[in-house]
Amino acid sequence: MFIAAAAAILVALSLALARAIWGPSVFDRVLAGNSVGILAILLLAVVGFLTGRPAFLDIALTYGLLNLIGTLAVLKFFRHGDLAYDVEERKG
Amino acid sequence: MSLAVDLASWALILAGSFFTVVGALGLVRMPDIFTRMHAASVTDTVGAGLLVLGMVLQAGISLTALKLAILLGLFFFTGPVVTHALAQTCLHEKIEPLLADDPAAAD
Prior knowledge:
The complex is a heterodimer.
Chain A: H1 2-22, H2 26-50, H3 56-80, H4 87-91
Helix pairs in contact in A: 1-2, 2-3
Chain B: H1 3-29, H2 33-59, H3 63-92
């Protein structure tokens, strides 16, 4: 059963990768990159069960946190042109 | 493990796999960024949720199940945050949603 889940996740991963390569705008690529990250987390969890090593879940959790930070950092850079931009500071 | 729990977890994992593929298919097929976000959120919520729930049933009451629950919480709290930030940035960059009466939406 986990093999079927892993195969489905791999199919979804290749579709998301196609969108990431195809674009056309940078935001499509950010969205596809985020999806690739989430699918990679799911694949890590499933492969952990498949091989009987649930320690893979720790890697999956870490990857999830990094995925969030990475996506938000890219979005902040494209919105403000600067990763250190402080919205509250510019208001006053 | 009893057969009933096994069957339930298999059903959940199969349904989760189905919704994961459907969400990714929508990511490729949808016409503009906002509809693609909508499709990607299917993978984030239903697909991942059902898959993780099925794996929790397989794991039983253990540390593994707790880690899977934390993973599910992470998905449920970070998914909307990322989608909101992405939509806000798109609107800030003057990318408008495609409307039904647009000639470009006909195909």
